Amino acid sequence: MELALRNSLTARQGVSTDMQARFIAYLDAKPRTVETYAKALKPFFAYLASNGITQPTREDILAYRDELKGTHKPTTVQAYIVPVRLFFQWAQQEGLYPNVAEHIKGAKISKEHKKDALTSGQIKTILKDIPTGSLQGLRDYAIMALMVTCGLRTIEVVRADIGDLRTAGDSAALYVQGKGQDEKNEYVKLPQPVEKAIRAYLKARGAADQAQPLFASTSNNNQGERMTTRSISGIVKGRFTGAGYISDRLTAHSLRHTAGTLNLLNGGTLEETQQLLRHSNINTTMIYLHHLERAKNNSEARIAAAIF
Fold this sequence. Notes:
The chain has helices at 2-12, 17-26, 31-50, 58-71, 74-93, 120-128, 135-150, 154-159, 192-205, 229-242, 252-265, 270-277, 282-295, 299-307, and strands at residues 165-168, 171-176, 186-189. The protein is mainly alpha-helical. Strands 1-2-3 form a three-stranded antiparallel beta sheet. Helix 3 packs across helix 5.
């Protein structure tokens, strides 16, 4: 009966770009997610067109995945295959085409962090290397200090407004709109040196409007306007490089990893670190713990001491 259903659906029509557009319109997700899915589906439809495939089979999907594996990282392969699976799931649900992508796996992705954390000494060096004699320097220092002590994502820095500086108990706090959230209902507590750095920057900027972005661009083209995640990432990367830390594994996200790592190393519990980083699943936080357990394993040194 299932085979008959598949044959019936396939006989109706092939897979078309019109179906692709209908699927994108169907998605009930945030605009950025919809945009990501739309971009991820384009290579698949280009693959079908270049190979003259109008009625793809399971074998065609597998061949497409294997071609991706030859030229892309596992994370990219996964990002391309997931929308394909969802597309065919939707197509069958709508009675347009059989779900030929059912149970097709993307790529095996390591649970280890793709970016490196920094040591406390390295962070001190990087922060010390930032000259604070200019508005740009004050801003960059405040951004770096905030991200590395509070574990903020670049998007959370971008979304922050001056009015989000509030209090929580007896501590200064910054309310943030976290990943996948629609409101600023979570906060991070600002250590005194971090609040001082932010206040010094705002004073130099002369900003008082509570609706203004907490951190603003200093470029000629959009001076005073809200920054982008790309610009924040560029600032962090530039400060790393300027201090002599040059590596593809060091990015803005490294500051978030550093926050989690240093908190655990200095007595923070797993639950406290989960709350700090605002992980919805504690298993994500446990990756940090696993990494530290290996880092504390001094087996190599003991073996070397027995030999040399």
